[in-house]
Amino acid sequence: MFFLLIISGLSPQSVVANDRPNDAGGCVIITWDSVSDTSIDGYIVLRQTLPDTTFKRVGFTGRLKNEFEDNSAVDSERYVYRIATKKGEMYYYSPPSNVIHSSPQFFHTGRLNTLIAVIIFTFLLVYFVRRAKKGENLFIRKISGIDAVDEAIGRATEMGRPILYVPGLGDIDFPSTIASMNILGEVAKKVAMYDIPLIAVNCYPVVFTVAREIVHEAFLNQGKIEKYKDDYVRYLTESQFGYAGAINGIILRERPATCFFIGPFFAESLLMAETGNQIGAVQIAGTDQVLQLPFFVTACDYTLLGEEVYAASAYLSREPILLGSLKAQDFGKFLVLLILVFLTVLSFFNLNLLSFLKVE
Amino acid sequence: MKQRLPLFICLVVGLLMVIQFYIPHPVSVGFNSIINKWVVILSAFALVLGIGNLVSHHISKIKKAKADRWYSLVTLISMTLMALVGLVFGIGPDSLYQKIFLNILTPLGATMFALLAYYMASAAYRAFRVRNIEASILLASAFVVMLGFMPIGQFLHPYFPQVAEWIMRVPNMASQRGILFGVAFGSIATALKIILGIERSWLGSGK
């Protein structure tokens, strides 16, 4: 119980309570004007639950803050807040705030910009896919890293040695892991066609099961199911360097003619790519992890940079519908570039709308 | 039906998860939590399949008496021992399981990580060999950046750290952001293609 009314220059003023926006309820934000005295200890936040008449302490903040989030609010209750400045043993109380109650919201307004972007991009995607379906010839630039897939598989066929496929260190919730699985499907079809051994190694069990299903179906589609072996897709370990060590062991013992490193990679990328380089394998890498790209560029013959990983499946399959989606990606990037240039030019004239791009 | 049902489930759950992102209401948050629990449960089932694959692969190698069968034997014995130690003695902070983990597995991982320094040296040697104009620019900028971040750079010329900082902050950052834009659009396109059923190679058919 802290209800002692002492009004002085140390009493916080303009105490305002607001429901926290864009949340699931249960939170009130209280703001006040800080006092100018720098020798105070901090502020005590007091709350009155109506129709009670007493204030109870709900929190304490340091003297440099003038905002408090009360996460103990109940949505059906109405509250009044009061802030007490604590200086030594003395308390200086503010006037009461407005009456407030917390509530959940049905739309996150801070994410409106992303919703607009997704809707525009979906329209672009549908538009270009429809154009592709009508048989329109869409120009797609040459991606040498993907063009080299056939060459790399051909080399493995000539040498009679296996192909190693590493989908990276990401679980199935990584978009680049999904893109890698799409590429694995295309690679597996060619592996089935030319009857070459495949070693696809995985570090997450869910990715392993998806990879196994994809490779199995690829063999089935090529009418080579009798050639499929369970051993083609292997589960190793979730440990990052255990995974890298196991792959290095496979590279050195089984000496694959071609290594694919496509997916999300982290510190282990160079360990594997350098080992593959040492045995003279043709290496095609691709990742969306910007910091790992220089390592792959150095150690591999071909590297798919960022978005090329996502384009590879469409590029390899040459399906018009999938190629249409690549056009949508390009137009999306062009649109973002235009918006950025436009907003930057506006900011020269003191019209700062760049904050609209901020996502909460 | 074998394809339509997964596509339908993918469409419905995918759209629900997209909608959920824009709704902060407790019902929506609860739905997200339930889906995440399902993912954990499904992962546990997949782990059984993964371990089954690991065991069968190594048993077949041992049976075939290949030259490297000893590695397979070590793998199987280590895996079984760790599982038994964890099941019998528990996995608490002072348990035998934690001691094996901290004193054997962690140093082994650190050893692999430490090897990275040597791999980096050999990769850097190849990258910095002056073969063409791009490699020359790479070598020159790497030289400036390395000097700029070392005390000797400041000693040689006070502009070295500033130039190094500029290379990292302007051309390097600009190219990184360019790649990241592409990655973002690629991620969204992949997600939309799968949700809308345009990309179906994850179903195995490729059609």
Seen as an oligomer or otherwise, the chain set is heterodimer
The greatest interface here is:
A-B, 87 and 64 residues
The ordered string of helix (H) and strand (E) elements of chain A is EEEEEEEHHEHEHEHEHEHEHH
Helix-residue proportion of chain B? over 70%
- Quantity of strands of chain A, as a count: 13
The number of helical runs of chain B is 7
**Strand order of the biggest β-sheet of chain A:** 10-9-8-11-12-13
**What is the mean pLDDT of chain B?**
90
Description:
The complex is a heterodimer of chains A (360) and B (207). Chain A has helices at 112-133, 144-159, 175-194, 205-221, 240-254, 269-278, 293-299, 307-317, 320-348; strands spanning 13-19, 28-33, 42-49, 56-62, 67-70, 79-87, 90-93, 163-166, 198-202, 233-235, 258-262, 282-287, 302-305. Chain A has 360 residues and is of the alpha/beta class. A six-stranded parallel sheet of chain A has the order 10-9-8-11-12-13, sandwiched between helices. In chain A, strands 4-3-6-7 form a four-stranded antiparallel sheet, with no helix packed on it. In chain A, β11 (258-262), α6 and β12 (282-287) form a beta-alpha-beta unit. Chain B is mainly alpha-helical and 207 residues long. Chain B has seven helices and no strands. The longest helix of chain B has 38 residues, at 26-63. The mean pLDDT of chain B is 90. At the A-B interface, α1, α3, α4, β10 and α5 of A face α1, α2, α4 and α7 of B.
